[in-house]
């Protein structure tokens, strides 16, 4: 007995044991899955955008360093627009005053800034008076309102941040300090209060349109979008996969068997994730949806083979012919598919494990979770599924004649063989043309654009940036020579030149620093003479002015958001337009160059901001993914060479698996053209998936040549008849699963699902049209091969 016969016999005895002990196998499976699934109670979710970054990420460290020196900056911005008139009416000013007062009652509040409580300084005789810009709006006269208007529309601290230049939109900034002990509770709690205030304000003054924006709103939207996806997309994927399986397999019971594998895989894998301490984030929240899709691949091939064998078996066992036929079909299907599904499990797992090259932790978590799920799905397919098929009453009369399917794929194979040269030429032209489009894609990581344009959050954000102020910033903590050095005229002059440089850049919308306070105080202390609206030229005088101003500020409105405790550093915040990643990075680079050439060494600072973090990680992540793809490519090639026992076949198999991603990204340049953080992992993820059909095709092709003695053309036709349908079914199921993500309200996932679906469909074309042609061109049958009738 040779090795393959011995292995075949061992495998048959193994499957036969499963069938005999089917009820025990089912019970053991449910116990194992129940034990794993109990870990679901430990599964945690994070809505913090910082979860996209490692703790040692340099941009995150820069931002946290700024926040540690000054204060955290997690705001909710109430954007107020009068439907009629402008902001400067009694009703609107009174509403702003009410909202300013009530916002102080929101949990975790640290600061509230608005027109009403803007600390306006002025000179009265020899005294410096600092007070709210207005109080008791209901009692204001028209003259007083006009004066408020003049101040508001000319003060650089207000225009472009608190009010727009036309005076038609204003904002109330509520800034929070989140303890971070449980952001899952903190953020929704803040949003409940903020939305309640918004509703009360609109009810009391129907003339107002009130919108919400800011970092806290983003964090809340992460949770909301993820919850919507889990509630809608997962059931939709199950329904689509079930319908696809029922339609294509032609058997409701076998579709139920496949869905059982999926359900157990999902429960067990997510339970393992809980036991292992994974934190689910907006990027990794699609792990269950991906698992629902990829977990069915192995079982589809087993079930298609099972049904094909079942329909052709001669029923000879008199006591229970249907049961005996079913058992034989189960044994044969496992025997025929176990090697390719093991290889595909390995390659798919490697594909997802390659996401560990990502610079973003959620994508690493996604890869690891799905890799665990793929392994569990294989175990269930070769252990649980045979036992389940043994107890399901798939009777003889339920089986359908499959000759039509075999004939269809046999005809298709004949066409591919006959037209292989023109097909290869056409495919080569299409591949080359689409691949040439890849450079047209532009890296553009914009955290706000991770959400659907149809969402209220995205619309409110767009309205805010178009009508009031930008919500993207570059922040700098600029050090002075010594404590108290922020009052040094030399220090202030460098900052002024830096601010003036930023003001001259087309991307800049607003600049916030201590400069305007110093200039206004200098003017105040010179009788409010406009000619004195400039930086003081004496350090001691500047320090006295600033101290006098600080002593006049009310609690909660101190300057600790702009200067540090010992006054050895100050904060400069530049508000910019919504910029694509490359433009944000270019602006950062130009600013760094300015500081290098125009500021002393001790004043050089590193910019920090959330959009800047995403801009950087978008680029570094692509580099990591390129490295991961290269290693994944090499490992999969080696696996296929060993599994197929052919160096040439191993290399040849990579061609139809390389081109789908290239074609997809080229096609993406034509329909979208923007590559974000989520799309950067698609090539890694899909390489491990699309190789599955190639493995099944080549395994059957090699079997036909080596074991059945068929020549190349007959081997190709044999392969089409035996695995053509399974390849089509698995591709359609994968496309249905990933395609469902298109409906995600989280654009990062929606675009990932769309590009993955495109890649998978291109892969099927490569396997059905290109791979057979390559096999016929490169690997003709040996001259002494014995031809069998196909």
Automatic annotation (TrEMBL):
It comes from Methylocaldum szegediense. Its main location: membrane. It comes from the Bacteria. The keyword Cell membrane applies. This is RND transporter. InterPro entries: MMPL_dom, Mycobact_MmpL, SSD. Residues 255-391 form the SSD domain. Keywords: Cell membrane, Membrane, Transmembrane, Transmembrane helix. It is a multi-pass membrane protein. The chain crosses the membrane at residues 20-43, 230-249, 256-280, 286-307, 327-357, 369-395, 423-440, 624-644, 651-671, 677-702, 723-746, 752-777.
């Amino acid at each position: 007995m040779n090795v393959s016969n011995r292995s075949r016999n061992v495998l048959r005895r193994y499957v036969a044991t499963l069938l005999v002990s089917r009820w025990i196998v089912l019970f053991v499976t449910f116990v194992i899955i129940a034990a794993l699934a109990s870990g679901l109670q430990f599964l945690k979710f994070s809505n913090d955008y910082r979860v996209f970054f490692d703790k040692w990420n340099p941009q995150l460290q820069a931002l946290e360093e700024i926040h540690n020196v000054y204060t955290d900056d997690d705001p909710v911005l109430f954007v107020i627009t009068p439907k009629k008139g402008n902001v400067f009416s009694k009703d609107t000013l009174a509403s702003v005053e009410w909202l300013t007062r009530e916002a102080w009652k929101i949990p975790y509040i640290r600061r509230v800034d608005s027109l009403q409580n803007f600390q306006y300084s002025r000179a009265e005789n020899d005294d410096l008076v600092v007070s709210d810009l207005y109080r008791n709006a209901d009692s204001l006269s028209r003259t007083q309102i006009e004066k408020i208007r003049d101040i508001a529309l000319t003060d650089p601290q207000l225009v472009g941040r608190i009010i727009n230049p036309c005076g038609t939109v204003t904002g109330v900034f509520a800034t929070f300090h989140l303890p971070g002990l449980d952001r899952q509770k903190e953020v929704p709690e803040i949003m409940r209060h903020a939305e309640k205030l918004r509703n009360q304000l609109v009810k009391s003054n129907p003339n107002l349109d009130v919108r919400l924006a800011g970092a806290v709103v983003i964090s809340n939207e992460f949770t909301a979008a993820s919850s919507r996806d889990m509630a809608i997309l997962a059931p939709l994927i199950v329904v689509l996969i079930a319908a696809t399986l029922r339609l294509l397999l032609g058997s409701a019971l076998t579709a139920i068997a496949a869905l059982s594998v999926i359900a157990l895989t999902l429960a067990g894998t997510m339970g393992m994730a809980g036991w292992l301490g994974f934190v689910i984030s907006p990027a990794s929240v699609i792990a269950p949806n991906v698992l629902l899709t990829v977990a069915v691949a192995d079982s589809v091939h087993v079930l298609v083979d099972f049904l094909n064998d079942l329909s052709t078996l001669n029923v000879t066992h008199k006591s229970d012919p249907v049961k005996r036929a079913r058992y034989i079909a189960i044994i044969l299907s496992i025997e025929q598919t176990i090697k390719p599904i093991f290889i595909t499990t390995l390659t798919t797992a490697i594909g997802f494990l390659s996401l560990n090259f990502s610079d973003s932790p959620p994508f690493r978590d996604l890869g690891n979770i799905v890799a665990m799920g793929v392994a569990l799905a294989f175990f269930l397919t070769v252990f649980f599924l045979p036992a389940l098929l043994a107890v399901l009453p798939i009777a003889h009369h339920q089986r359908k004649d499959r000759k039509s399917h075999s004939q269809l794929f046999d005809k298709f194979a004949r066409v591919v063989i006959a037209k292989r040269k023109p097909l290869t030429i056409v495919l080569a032209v299409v591949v080359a043309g689409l691949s040439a489009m890849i450079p047209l894609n532009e890296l553009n990581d914009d955290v706000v654009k991770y959400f659907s344009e149809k969402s209220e959050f995205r619309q409110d954000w767009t309205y805010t940036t178009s009508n009031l102020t930008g919500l993207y910033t570059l922040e700098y903590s600029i050090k002075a020579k010594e404590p108290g050095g922020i009052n040094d005229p030399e220090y202030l002059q460098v900052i002024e030149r830096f601010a003036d440089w930023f003001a001259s850049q087309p991307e800049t919308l607003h600049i916030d620093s201590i400069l305007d306070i110093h200039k206004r105080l200098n003017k105040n202390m010179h009788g409010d003479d406009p000619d004195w609206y400039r930086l003081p030229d004496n350090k001691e005088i500047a320090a006295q002015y600033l101290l006098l101003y600080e002593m006049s500020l009310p609690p909660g409105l101190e300057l600790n958001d702009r200067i540090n405790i010992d006054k050895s550093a100050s904060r400069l915040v530049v508000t910019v337009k919504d910029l694509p990643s490359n433009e944000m990075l270019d602006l950062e680079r130009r600013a760094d160059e300015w500081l290098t050439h125009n500021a002393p060494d001790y004043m050089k600072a590193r910019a920090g901001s959330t959009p800047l973090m995403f801009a950087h990680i978008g680029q570094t992540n692509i580099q990591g993914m390129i490295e991961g793809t290269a290693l994944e490519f090499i490992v999969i090639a080696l696996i296929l060479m060993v599994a197929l026992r052919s160096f040439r076949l191993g290399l040849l198999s990579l061609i139809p698996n390389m081109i789908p991603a290239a074609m997809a990204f080229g096609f993406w340049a034509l329909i979208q053209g923007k590559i974000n953080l989520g799309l950067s992992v698609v090539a890694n993820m899909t390489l491990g998936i699309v190789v599955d059909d190639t493995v099944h095709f080549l395994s059957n092709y090699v079997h036909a040549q080596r074991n059945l003695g068929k020549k190349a053309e007959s081997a190709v036709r044999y392969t089409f008849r035996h695995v053509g349908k399974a390849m089509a079914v698995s591709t359609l199921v994968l496309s249905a699963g990933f395609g469902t993500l298109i409906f995600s309200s989280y654009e990062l996932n929606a675009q990932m699902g769309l590009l993955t679906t495109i890649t998978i469909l291109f892969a099927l074309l490569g396997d059905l049209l290109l791979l057979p042609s390559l096999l016929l061109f490169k690997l003709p049958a040996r001259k002494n091969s014995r031809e069998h009738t196909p």
